[in-house]
Every structure is written in C-alpha cells, then in structure tokens.
Amino acid sequence: MSNIDAKFKAILYGLAIGDALGFQVEFSKLPHIYERFGREGVTDLPEDALFSDDTQMTIAIAEALVKAGDKDLESIMAEVRREFIKWLHSPENNRAPGNACLIGVENMETGIHWSQSGVADSKGCGSAMRVAPVGYLYQNQPEKLKEVASATGICTHGHPTGDAACIGAAYLVKLALDGIDPGDMVPRLLEFTKGISQEFDEAILKITHCLDWDDEDEALSCLGEGWIGEEAVALALYCFLRYPNDYKKTVLRAANTNGDSDSIACVAGGISGAYLGLEAIPRDWISRIEKSEYLEDLADRLAKVKNNKSG
C-alpha cells in the first residue's frame, strides 16, 4: 500500500468516525451531553455506528471524482450532480439532512445549472462538511482545489462565507497532507481564502484568541455552535490544533461540542486523519463504522485517480 493510498483511507475513515461520534449528540448542548454520558461526554462509538448526511455527501463527492477523473470543471460537476441526486433519493437519506443541501440538489435536478442552484443566502456548514475528497485529490494543484471546492459548495450554499468555509475546509486537508506545522495552519489558511469573506476571516482568527485557554468548553462557546460554515471550520480546526498528534482526542473533543457536533467532528476527523495517517485511528473504530469495507474500496478507487494524475 502506498502512502497516497493509506492517506485517503485515513481521511475517509477519520471523517466518518468523527461524524458518527458527533451524530449521537447533534443538537445537544454540552450540559445535556455530560448529563447523558457522564463528565467525559462521548468517549466511544456506539455499537450501531451510523454516520450522518455529512459522510453520505462526502461519499457522493468522492464517487463523482472517481467517475470524472482529472477532467474539466463542467465534467466534474456533471458527476457531482448525478451523485447528489442519487443521494437525494436514497432511502438512507433520513439522517437530518440540511435544508440548503436538499433545496440545492432539488434545483439541480430540475435543470438549474450548478452555478445558480444554491440557496443564495445560505452559509450553513453543509458544503464544508463534505469537501475533504477535493482537498485530497487536488493536494498538489491548489488553484484547481479552490475551483472545484467552490463549485461543489455553491451548488447548494451560495453565500460568500459558505464558499470560503468550503474552500477552507478542503485546503486544511491539503495542508495536513503536506505535513504543515499545525502552528502555521491559521495564517496559511487565511492567505488562501483572502478576499472571499471577512466573516470567515474573523471566525478563524478567533481560534488564536482562545486556543490556549484552560477551559476548552469556554473556548468552544467562544467559537460558536457550528451550524454555519465559518464556525464549523473554526471549531474543527480548534479541536485539531488542541490535539494535533492525537486523532482520538481530536474527534472526541469535536464530538463533545454545542450544536452541530457531527459536522464539527467530521471536518476535524478528516484533517486529523490526513495529518496523522491510518495508524492513528483505533482499529476497532474502523471495523465498527458503518460500511467500513465500502469506505476502504472507495478510498482505493480515489487513490488510483490521484496516482494516475501524478504518474
């Protein structure tokens, strides 16, 4: 197994497991999580380790990239449209999908072009939560990464801040794959997304304000609840930066958050998986996550596309 092959397995397992950890407590505030699970909060995957629409839509993008290969943007988005419509009508699409995702895909299904199908004022985190495959495939083509990430995002979420969050989430996967020092990630991220959204910039800069606080719960409250894109990315990056060398601590911290815990832990898990690799993820979690064998096969197939691009 090449390092490239193993890395996308780590990203895909990393985000799916984070998603499943957080999915148990989505919509819950931290006091309710502690009341239900004890003072440590969520500490393990449930036996029935189901992931949410976050991973389902990530899978859709990965499948689209496998089918499109290294093609032009319209060809890529034609495949994204097909995979999103498949997801829309799947009987498994019953895990609290976001309204903007549903509306955007429905618009594409009616024939509205992807560049116009998104909900114009939506900056929800639904575009950022699913974009990790783009960061992986275009790791070494940052401008193509930006172009493709933006397109996969604005087809459902049209607000510039949502666009910045989606591009930023993909770029963080790229930085993690590059092995960039975690301490350099905030400035590198802000340089890459410069000029897209002041709201996004401000949300990311908040991390530097509260990263060293002793009270992590207070820091999380400072950063928000993650329902909107800039907060979800900021919270996920905060959790990774608190525990850059420990996948398990990163995703458990991300799952034990106020609000959109599955999306926060999904994004954080993808970044941590990209940075630390497959060996950092508990083996029993990999075997327990829903569709584990399928995820492995999908990772192999996208890795082949990346290998062919660089070969």
From TrEMBL:
Cofactor note: Binds 2 magnesium ions per subunit.
InterPro entries: ADP-ribosylglycohydrolase (IPR050792), Ribosyl_crysJ1 (IPR005502), Ribosyl_crysJ1_sf (IPR036705)
Protein name: ADP-ribosylglycohydrolase
Cited Pfam families: ADP_ribosyl_GH
Cross-referenced SUPFAM superfamilies: ADP-ribosylglycohydrolase
Cofactor requirements of the protein: Mg(2+)
This protein's UniProt keywords: Hydrolase, Magnesium, Metal-binding
Organism this protein belongs to: Desulfatibacillum alkenivorans DSM 16219
Entry GO MF terms: hydrolase activity; metal ion binding
Stated family: Belongs to the ADP-ribosylglycohydrolase family.
Superkingdom of origin organism: Bacteria
Residues the entry annotates as binding Mg(2+): 52-54, 260, 262-263
